[in-house]
Amino acid sequence: MGEVFAGRYELIDPIGRGGVGAVWRAWDQRRRRYVAAKVLQQSDAHTLLRFVREQAVRIDHPHVLAPASWAADDDKVLFTMDLVHGGSLAHLVGDYGPLPPRLVCVLLDQLLSGLTAVHAEGVVHRDIKPANVLLEATGTGRPHVRLSDFGISMRKGEPRLTDANYVVGTPGYFAPEQMLGAEPDFPGDLFAVGLVAVHLLTGSKPDTQGLVEHFAQYGTPDAPEGIAEPLWQVLANLLQPDPDLRFKTAAGARKALLAAAELLPEATIEDEIVEVFDHIGPLPAGFGPDGPLRAEGAGAGGDP
Prior knowledge:
This protein is α+β, with helices and mostly antiparallel strands. The chain folds into 2 domains: 4-83, Phosphorylase Kinase, domain 1; 89-261, Transferase(Phosphotransferase) domain 1 (Transferase(Phosphotransferase), domain 1, Orthogonal Bundle). The chain contains 8 helices and 12 strands. It has helices at residues 45-55, 89-96, 101-120, 176-179, 186-202, 208-218, 229-238, 250-261, and strands spanning 4-5, 9-17, 22-28, 33-41, 69-73, 76-82, 123-124, 133-135, 145-147, 154-155, 287-288, 291-292. The strands form 4 sheets. The protein has a 6-stranded antiparallel beta sheet. The longest helix has 20 residues, at 101-120. The protein is globular and about 65 Å long. It starts with a strand and ends in a 12-residue tail after the last strand. The relative contact order is 0.15.
């Protein structure tokens, strides 16, 4: 059996790595369910403050993966989230390349729905990218996304953890105003959603700098090959270098996206079926669907 953290969370096997800590599949002995647990060292005060901010995000929404609980043990801290099995949008586009536009619209609609809830709480995510949008393992059924990783998120008006001249996030997904040191705000998240959309539709990470320069010199670029004009008009709005020219809210972007999706051609039988399969894999020996397989007569452990 695995190490038991804080007398409650049994760490089973590592399933990933976040920006500042390892992510484990764990068994919550109190709630009697499998969870994802991010474990961090307490030695770095800066990292610890980020942990405090991330675990403080409490947003209950079907398309948001926010921390559910936390614990401390010796020199480590952890917080838990739902265990999401289907990998991320980065895995999906890596497996299939460019995704069908109607599928991308479903994914973006759910992402914008979750982002609407995040912004309603005054939280700016600041690191929206394909790897931070997770998927439930729904097979060939309707996909289900979860916006995750709030490690560098902040509430509007909170003090920064870094100097204004130091940009945090993922290179290639910064909004232009972030590069100029502007205070984090909702339009920056919307710009990143536009970049995610282009990535999913073309199969490759967009040239952010090239897009910004084209807007500045020539205006709105032509739609990339394979992106219908109604859909491109929505994405081009999200990608406006001037944040004042973007959609004002995630809800507004979502409404425009749904209208554009109605104008897309119907899927054909030739379209590739996209399957979101389980990326975590089977439980190791000693664990079953209902938890650890204890020897007969042994206690289950944990709090009642």
